[in-house]
Amino acid sequence: MALSPALPPADALPPYTNLWAYRKRFAEAAPILMYHKIGSPPHGARFRGLYLPTWLLARQLCEWKANGWTSMGLAEFACPSSPIRKRVCLTFDDGYASLHQEAFPLLGEQGFRAIVFLVAERIGSSNEWDLAIGEKPAALMDEVQIREWMQAGHEIGGHTLTHASLTRLTLSEARREIVDGKKKLEDLFGRSIEHFSYPYGDWNPQIRDLVAEAGYRTACTVERGINGVGADPFLLRRITACRPPRTLRTLFGLMPG
Fold first, then answer.
1. Cα Rg for the chain, rounded, in angstroms?
2. Higher pLDDT, 97 or 85
């Protein structure tokens, strides 16, 4: 289904830095924010945009709380009957250890809940899928860290077995990545895994249908935008949270004080 025509088009929504810039756009529907790594990128990192400084995450959470916003889960996007207001959904892809080290304490301090999408066969390992293209290795959360995450009230979701680009696989290979990844997480952690994120944001109608058939309730893309009532729960749009561009305005307005 199409997004509500009252919502701004995807290309009108820049990456998220602060609530003030988005206050009007978030007035009609709850946003889903997307994070990856928390902290400063190491020297030589290729994809520096996947890192969000710890101080900026802290500021974003404080800003949400100060303005009366609360967190919500993806289940509320499955079949909303009316617009969801003053709620934000926080999602973290891949399950980097920096999430546990940096974001986990901040979320607890501000009373926010989040979901992390885990690569089932890489738990406790590293981002092997990135190494072939020259990215620096980064540790992923191990079982102990994930259990601490869940015990604090946070959720976990599926991100395939190996972080494969699903549209480049045969349908049988893609089905294995989706279905077996879900089962592995359920067997390991003893809970139903109901939410999915497409690795690299790669999907097509056949992949979308495989995710639905696997028993997931929602799936997140990397397509930028806000989800209105009637949006396809298996093609949820998100907004990347990132460091603002380095200008004098942002330097003085957003640096920690």
1. 17
2. 97
